[in-house]
Task: inverse folding
């Protein structure tokens, strides 16, 4: 005599799906990582602020998917073979697949279908699943336990001299169009000088930047830079200028606010240039210099990076 309860949808219920539990934990963990970065004000050290809304939506979706996986792990107790069979079975005409049938473990399926084939390769089957799981867990743990630091220009440049990242202009005769108030942003200054050229000399500025070491500077000078990003720190580019004043230079790696006026200073720079007669000559560039009236140490800004400068 057959058991009347052995043919229902929950017949031979299996254990909780541990793979789904793992997926739920990882999805929830990465969602929590995004929440942590926003809560501690650390997201600005990874991404441009224009992407905050999109990152927030991504975090919400990750948390929602984690909750869905956790619910399915507890409520769907069908044995794995039953899930795989449901996934492989042809659907009757006009019937749609259920969402929980579409999330079968493909890695496990390939291992069961081809136990002696490519499923046992390092990147396939149980070994591949374990390898990928370790990488995912390590990445999540690193993100949750690490406090990000602002990139320095020397890090981006690979320790090379920062001279190529200093602002310079190409002299050109243009009418003077000085703004009435001090410029307070590296990007605004760069855009202004791209139009004003050498007539921008004397323009008042009040800039905040990170003090960076740079060779070849004169006594009383230091380089001050910001990192310009479009989307994230992967596309970061340093942009800086020379500050000169009477007092001692701030320590490298610290932040300072400089008030003063712009000066244009032609200087020799590395490279090979040619004169009108075609012979090699010393290369020169009209570097942007700020004659500092005051240099004040300040804490690192909440948003240490700036947007595109041009």
Result:
């Amino acid at each position: 005599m057959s058991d009347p309860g052995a043919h229902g949808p929950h017949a031979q219920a299996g254990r909780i799906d541990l793979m789904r539990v793992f997926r739920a934990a990882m999805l929830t963990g990465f969602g929590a990582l995004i929440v942590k970065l926003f809560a501690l004000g650390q997201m600005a050290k990874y991404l441009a602020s224009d992407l905050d809304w999109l990152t927030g939506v991504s975090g919400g979706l990750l948390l929602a998917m984690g909750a869905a996986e956790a619910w399915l792990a507890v409520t769907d107790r069908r044995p794995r073979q039953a899930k795989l069979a449901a996934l492989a079975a042809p659907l009757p005409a006009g019937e749609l697949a259920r969402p929980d049938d579409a999330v079968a473990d493909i890695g496990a399926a390939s291992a069961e279908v081809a136990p002696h084939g490519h499923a046992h390769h390092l990147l396939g089957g149980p070994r591949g699943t374990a390898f990928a799981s370790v990488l995912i867990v390590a990445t999540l743990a690193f993100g949750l336990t690490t406090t990000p630091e602002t990139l320095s220009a020397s890090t981006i440049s690979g320790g090379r001299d920062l001279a190529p990242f200093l602002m310079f202009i190409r002299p050109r005769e243009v009418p003077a169009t000085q703004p009435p108030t001090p410029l307070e942003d590296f990007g605004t200054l760069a855009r202004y000088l791209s139009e004003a050229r050498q007539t921008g000399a004397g323009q008042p500025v009040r800039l905040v930047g990170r003090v960076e070491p740079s060779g070849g500077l004169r006594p009383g000078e230091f380089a001050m830079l910001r990192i310009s990003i479009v989307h994230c720190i992967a596309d970061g580019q340093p942009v800086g200028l020379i500050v000169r004043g009477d007092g001692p230079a701030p320590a490298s790696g610290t932040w300072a606010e400089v008030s003063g006026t712009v000066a244009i200073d032609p200087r020799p720079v590395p490279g090979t240039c040619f004169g009108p007669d075609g012979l090699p000559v010393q290369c020169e560039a009209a570097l942007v210099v700020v004659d500092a009236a005051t240099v004040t140490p300040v804490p690192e800004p909440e948003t240490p990076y700036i947007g595109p400068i041009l």
Observations:
- Confidence is low (pLDDT under 50) at residues 1-12, 99-122.
